[in-house]
Amino acid sequence: MKTAVDSFMERNQMLKPEQTVLVAVSGGPDSMALLHYFTTIRKRWKLRLIAVSVDHGLRGEASAEDLKYVEEMSRQWNIEFIGTSIDVHTYKKQNHLNTQQAARTLRYRFFHQQMEEKKADVLALGHHGDDQAETIVMRLVRGANPVGLTGIPVTREFAGGKIIRPFLGIPKESILTYCEDHRIEPREDASNQDTKYTRNYFRHKILPLLKEENPKLVEHLWKLSQVVKEDQEYLEREAEKLLEQAVDFEKNPKKVSFSISAFKAFPIALQRRSFHLILNYLYDGNSEDFSYIHEEQFFDFLTRNIANAKLDWPGGLWLQRNYERITLHFGDPEKPVPYRSTLDIGDTYRLPDGSELSAKVVSGNHLREDTWTFTCDLTHVELPLIVRTRRAGDRMTWKGMEGSKKIKDIFIDHKIPKELRDSWPVITDQTGKILWLVGLKKSAGPESERPGEWLQIHYKQPKEDT
Length: 466
Prior knowledge:
Layout: H1 2-11, E1 20-24, H2 29-45, E2 48-55, H3 61-76, E3 80-85, H4 88-95, H5 99-117, E4 122-124, H6 129-142, E5 155-158, E6 161-164, H7 172-181, H8 198-213, H9 217-246, E7 247-250, E8 255-259, H10 260-264, H11 268-282, H12 292-303, E9 308-313, E10 317-322, E11 325-330, E12 340-343, E13 348-350, E14 356-363, E15 373-377, E16 385-388, E17 395-396, E18 405-406, H13 407-413, H14 418-421, E19 426-428, E20 434-437, E21 441-442, E22 453-460
Parallel strand pairs: 1-2, 1-4, 2-3, 4-6
Antiparallel strand pairs: 5-6, 7-8, 8-11, 9-10, 10-11, 12-16, 13-14, 14-22, 15-22, 16-19, 17-18, 19-20, 20-21
Protein name: tRNA(Ile)-lysidine synthase
EC number: 6.3.4.19
Binding site for ATP: 26-31
């Protein structure tokens, strides 16, 4: 086994000479074999070894004894030791987590702290080939995306250094044999036999059945994970180009949006990978609650002929489509508050979104007419002006039109997202006549070329945050 692990470590460039290595040790066969293995290479690599161990407090005296055992074996093998006890039960209740999640969070918090305090370069973990196989099969059953088939990473960045898993390429059986050969008598955690935990159920019920069909299951799944990993690394690089070109990311609060046509211009494989990169961004890499169902819903939003639709996703995330744009954001946006205010000549009114409306009188020699400016004959308007949000039944007419049209239908014609309609500014005169649905429709423009006084209203868009 040692030769295989040596080769695996060198191939994956896990170590450099004279590094400080923390070895996470529970007292079980995997971690004890790992700790012993490092004693065999310590001198050659000139390593500083520190065993770190956590009593989760879940098994009373038994787990406390595990901690003492690791401390004693560390002393015998002349290895520095740091141990701690954590209160998983309290943390679990306070943060509404299951036992495994709470234990993992506190355990890695401790590891992170020790990495920083000891200025360590590496945290070594005892995951092995059977753990990798269990992870891949579990993700397959749950409906994982292709990235999930890469399994547990061999190395990853952590606390200014990195996590390494030297045993990931070897089966559990080799580790047990190693312990026997070196007379290591590890502690047995009774909870590892409890099949109420999902991983234990797969370990003791599912994997043995699969191994009966294929004794080389662990080896084959390992090879699969590496092939998928290489493919995914390439796809991820290409998908990142898609994100740069077609997707807008916002930070505070986190929000992602994009044009459907721009997104769909890329191959479907990159669209799918980009979708998962978006989730990684929104969930800080922790998007395990998503399955193929959510992926199908996402692509349904891309392809189905719908104007407005919305889905509530895990963790308070909303998937929203407004015509040709899709947005993913946390929290259901608050409904806009209706507003109504007068706008006198010479005044400026600031709208809730930071945009501004101003009104003034200009001479016939200084007329201005564009998308964001409305001009009309002053004699055709009853002052003061009113700036307000839409009301049920609002209608308006414009030059060359017979009859009138509902404001609601104008919004639909211009594909204005639903969430913007209730805050869109409507300008009327004192009689209630709608003069301008800002940026969309104007009731009338200048009626003649004769000189005189004209009302001019200008809309100024809000400044973008820099």
